[in-house]
Specification:
Blueprint lengths: L6 E2 L10 E3 L5 E3 L9 E2 L13 E4 L4 E6 L2 E4 L15 E7 L6 E2 L19 E4 L2 E2 L6 E5 L5 E9 L6 E5 L10 E5 L24 E7 L2 E4 L16 E5 L11 E5 L8 E6 L4
Parallel strand pairs: 4-5
Antiparallel strand pairs: 1-2, 2-3, 5-6, 6-7, 8-20, 9-19, 10-11, 10-20, 12-19, 13-14, 13-18, 14-17, 15-16, 15-18, 16-17
Amino acid sequence: MRLLKGQNTNLRNIYGKGVKYDVNDQVILDSTNVMLVPKGTQAQRPTSPVNGHLRYNTDIDNFEVYEGGAWVTIANTAPAGTGSNVPIVQQNLGNGDAVETLFGPLNNQDTAYPAPAGAQNILVFVENVFQISGTNYTIVQNPGQSSTIVSIDSIDGTTGFPTVTTSSAHGLETGDTVSISGVETDPDDNIELLNVGDDSTSPGSVAVTKITDTSLEIHVDVSGGVIGNYVTNSGVIYLVDADQSTYLPGWYIEFTSAPDLDKPVTVLHNFDK
């Protein structure tokens, strides 16, 4: 008679504890202690990973799993916080003034994952009214540091000053001084006079007048320039002294229309963790 025995990896006793494989193809870790998984740096990841691989990444001090064709960190369910873990963080961002559309910077108190994964990953309220991501607001990073000039919208017939639209909230106020570079036209014309501060022959800075959060009048005479000749997104505008920015670095809520006067803006963080 042939005897069948269970398969296990215990080196001391075939009846002892260890890693076992049962008739249902289950792997059983028969222990009340711990399991040490493979660990190493990011550079030591396997060269040909497959979905389901699990390891501990010593560069970021976190578990990671290869999932859907990419390495994904297994996040803690509670944010790091200061002193104690707080699952949900309520942040008050001040009151509306019927003009400002940017509120922040956002602070979820999670030092490991400080940036929201997306606009839909936070809950935003104006007073007690829930806001819908993509409809009522989006999120932007570091507004006011530099902005791409999407288009030249008009040229004042008296001063020759152009009004431009920027790709994101510029963070500038009337009277701020800026430098501009990269402006191109096809064919070349006076619109390229907007390139101030980008070479030794041009002035170092020029004043602006704020119209909206994404619109500015630039105090450079470009009379004779043709709006349609501007190469879309070619120019970049930025403060001469970045420390003058009205917005601190970080992520901000940008509303599609300014919250009404004295309406409080509140954000709830970490629902996605």
